[in-house]
Design a protein that fits this description.
- The protein has 445 residues and is an alpha/beta fold.
- The chain has 3 domains: 83 residues, SRP54, nucleotide-binding domain (Four Helix Bundle (Hemerythrin (Met), subunit A), Up-down Bundle), CATH 1.20.120.140; 197 residues, Rossmann fold (3-Layer(aba) Sandwich); 125 residues, 434 Repressor (Amino-terminal Domain) (Orthogonal Bundle).
- Helices cover 56% and strands 9% of the residues.
- The longest helix is centred in the C-terminal third of the chain and has 22 residues.
- The chain is flat.
- It binds guanosine-5'-diphosphate.
- The site of guanosine-5'-diphosphate (GDP) has 17 residues, from helix 5.
- It is found in: Cytoplasm.
Length: 445
């Protein structure tokens, strides 16, 4: 996500390192580099101009004198300006005070609207809401069915016109859906509307008719972040034609000049509220301008990581493992496996690592990280007997051969895992015992 932009900005900051004071020429050169980086990332020209002017002015100003060195100051300024163009504060969903909250989705065909409807429904379910999806896209042949499939995947019911009812009237469907939601006590109604390949008047009118008929609490414009400047143009056209309260960016997992998406909030004056970055139903979250800026500047996104950890970690399980370790100073391959499975729940390894600060430089390795490696380790451990997991010392040559066969791996893989385990254990022991690993403070108590 925005990898090229990240790299370019990192290079720019590198040039400032070690400078005691920024000369006018330094600031000009930096501004020029930032300008190129943003333009290359496809950020819209007016946004780039404003951005660079602000950075320049602030870098020249008195700000550059505090506790930070000039390079750090520039990073700080760029960070804050990025947050500003991304919309500033996180904009949260507004729920209706009475009756069901109505959310209407609008956007071009292929923007990822139908997928997004289901992702949003799942996200709402996680917030203890009881959403219902509404298939008001009656134009595309498979749209209703596709929404039903997606709804099923996330366990959310879909309200759709009965099959065989002709073309159907999307406005009527949307209206009926809200009555249905009231009767069946669903508290959020997500209306998926028709998209076209291009913007046309009829499409706009249909969306506007639905909007007028149901008076949604939120109209969200869904846009594919990978279509470059067209995203900005389409956003503007929909704003004039239908109007909306917030933007949802999809396909942020592709890097292809996603910078256009960075311009949308600035150009339309509407906040980006959600972002979708992958094909999995859980690849979706609120959009936080500050966290996105941090990610772009490779300052990490610890907050998201922590939130995900809180969501998926089995606290009792973790505490038990920690207590056992503290008490006995020992841990077994079973504990090792459990910890690994907990981490696994957070998502792919490259995704987790990517959220840590300073990982930008390892991007290539991360992208090439073979996620199946963890499955392989798991398979090896699961091919061991309980006694072996409890006390790996007993794993001799013939046991290793048996484990390798059982897990479909090579004996060398088993050796490597067992070696690694003993290494890790030795390290834990010396930390617990206060013996101290070189360069690492001992844990007190
Ligand atoms: P709609 O026409 O707007 O309803 O779009 P769909 O929901 O059918 O999505 C179009 C295509 O984009 C599908 O193949 C989706 O799997 C894919 N897609 C949707 N969201 C994402 C995303 O965040 N990342 C990626 N990589 N693909 C996505």
């Amino acid at each position: 996500m925005f990898a090229t932009l990240s790299d370019r900005l990192a290079d720019t900051f590198k040039h400032l390192r070690g400078k005691g004071k920024l000369s006018e020429a330094d600031i000009d050169a930096t501004a020029r580099e930032i300008r190129i980086a943003l333009l290359e990332a496809d950020v819209a020209l007016p946004v780039v101009k404003e951005f660079v002017a602000a950075v320049k002015e602030r870098a020249r100003g008195e700000e550059v004198s505090g506790a930070l060195n000039p390079a750090q100051q520039v990073v700080k300024i760029v960070n804050e300006e990025l947050v500003t163009i991304l919309g500033g504060e996180t904009r949260r969903l507004r729920y209706a005070k009475t009756g069901p909250t109505v959310i209407m989705l609008a956007g071009l065909q292929g923007a990822g609207k139908t997928t997004l409807a289901a992702k949003l429904a799942l996200w709402l379910k996680d917030q203890d809401k009881t959403p219902v999806l509404v298939a008001a896209d009656l134009q595309r042949p498979n749209a209703v069915q596709q929404l039903q499939v997606n709804g099923e995947r996330v366990g959310v019911p879909v309200f759709a016109p009965a099959p065989g009812n002709g073309v159907g009237d999307p406005v009527a469907v949307a209206r009926e859906a809200i009555e249905h939601a009231k009767r069946t006590l669903h508290d959020v109604v997500i209306i998926d509307t028709a998209g076209r390949l291009g913007v046309d008047a009829e499409l706009m009118k249909q969306a506007a008719d639905i909007r007028d008929a149901v008076q949604p609490d939120e109209v969200l414009f869904v846009v594919d972040a990978m279509i470059g400047q067209d995203a900005v143009t389409t956003a503007q056209l929909f704003l004039d034609g239908v109007g909306y309260d917030g933007v949802v960016l999809t396909k942020l997992d592709g890097d292809a000049r996603g910078g256009a998406a960075l311009s949308i909030a600035s150009i339309t004056g509407k906040p980006v509220m959600f972002a979708s970055a992958g094909e999995k139903m859980t690849d979706f979250d609120l959009f936080h301008p500050d966290r996105m800026a941090s990610r772009i500047l490779d300052m990490g996104d610890m907050l998201t990581l922590i939130e995900q950890a809180e969501k998926s970690f089995d606290e009792a399980e973790s505490r038990k493992a920690a207590e056992k370790l503290l008490e006995t100073g020992d841990f077994t391959l079973d504990d090792f496996l459990k910890q690994m499975q907990q981490i696994r729940k957070l998502g792919s390894m490259s995704k987790i690592m990517g959220m840590l600060p300073g990982m930008g430089q390892f991007r290539d390795q991360l992208e090439n990280f073979d996620e199946r490696e963890i499955d392989r380790i798991q398979a090896i451990i699961q091919s061991m007997t309980p006694a072996e997991r409890d006390n790996p010392k007993i794993i001799d040559g013939s046991r290793r051969a048996r484990i390798a066969k059982g897990s479909g791996r090579q004996v060398s893989d088993v050796n490597q895992l067992v070696d690694r385990f003993f290494e890790a254990k030795k390290m834990m022991k010396s930390m617990m015992g206060g013996g101290g690993v070189p360069g690492m403070p001992a844990i007190p108590g």
